[in-house]
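G.,

No rush on this.
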Amino acid sequence: MPRVATLPLQRVMSGAMQRAQADLAATQSRLDTGKSATTYADLGTETVRNLSVHSMLARQDAQSTVAKRVGTTLSLYQGNLESIDTTIGGLQTDLLTAIGTGDSSALSAAISTAFDLFSHALNASDGGAPLFGGGQVDKPPFAVGSLADALTIDADSAFLDDGVRVSARVADGVDMKYGIGASEMGKGIYEAFRTLAQLGTLGEKPTDAQVDIMKQALGQIGTGLSDLRTVNAANGRRQGQLETLIERGEQRELLFQGVIQHHEDADLGQVAIDLANQMTVLQASYSAFSKLGGLSLVSFLR
């Protein structure tokens, strides 16, 4: 038996079901992605602002990465400078002890060890490139192989670093110039080693001439350590400035991320409520459509 005027109603119900299915699919997508907007067009009037904030966040991320990389380099500078300071400070004590006690039996070994540690720190590397070489990357900045060689190699020939200092953009409008050359903090100390190389063979007790050499070297060590500590202090100031900039950068990143999340991220609690409501609506649409499809004139006449 033919249906009674159900076709228009079926079309209306079919459209309602399709809309309910589309709403449910969109809500499910928000739940899966955690985003309230899947395209910039979905943001409407906030599109321009969010695009601008994304750009600022990308720039801040890049600057933070550079700043942290520079911070690592400055920490490597500090570690090696402090290593030299400790080593030469220990040698200074050994020389004073030898002069004061008249016992130089262990001094030769102490001087040789201090020179090796000094040389190793000056030629330290970062990623395969000399740390204290400036723009010089193909050879070590300190070219004296042993204490004996220091007798014939003057300071100008011993140090091969140049005056190049790199610059990095670590924040908006802030370019930090940094870098330490081996000669900048090592020449004074090297002069002390050149003097100590003149000691020759040390016995259990130093001669008067050897004591005079030790005293001369102590004066040079004092000057060299002063230069070293001045360089280390300047490096420390750069570290402090960089830490402040990194902290501010992290705060800016949080601000930018908050703006983006406010407009783009979905409220998962509300999404869960919407999902439950839309499933109920869709189930009701299915039920109504099924009942409508079962109507006939016989049902009406009953």
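When you get to it, here's the other one too:
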Amino acid sequence: MLKVYGDYRSGNCYKIKLMLHLLSQPYEWVPINILRGETRSEDFLKKNPNGKIPVLELEDGSCLWESNAILNYLAEGSEFLPTDPRLRTQVLQWQFFEQYSHEPFIAVARYIKVYLGMPEERREEYEAKQLDGYHALNVMEQQLLRTPYLVGDHYSIADVALYAYTHVAEEGGFDLGGYPAIRQWLQRVASHPRHVGMYD
């Protein structure tokens, strides 16, 4: 059986959980506490030398890491990864956008607030994340005003990648009230019959 090493509150880990549920793929969840340094243990570093979660351990004991790479592996041959090269490239565009223009701001602001409890020494950093986080939301809103999903008419791993931290963006201080297309998209994603919530 597949094993997922992760923290249930982490959006990057949630991506993998959500994808496995969308595929009806059984798995074992192995909880990892990042605040206790469990990703730096000798055993964990054998699974991912970069010392980060999530990690997907395959049936043969080999491991995959980096959440969006894992999504591509899991979705291969499914309805969630288009076969058309142009559409597939657009999926990658959104995955790169998520890691470089979305996650560093929305996820990090949430981490400071939710995981760390907003320590005073990181308040300035937290506030600095807001501007670029809203920019990322603006980019998504523009696309979702044009198409129901990020890559056209079909739910894909681009949506999984960006749903993970967007649906909990308010936990990082972001107000989604001014983003009607994003809010409708969040409802659309959550309405999938095999959807599972982050805290489920």
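The chain has a mean pLDDT of 97. Residues 147 and 153 are 6 Å apart (CA to CA).

Enjoy the weekend,
O.
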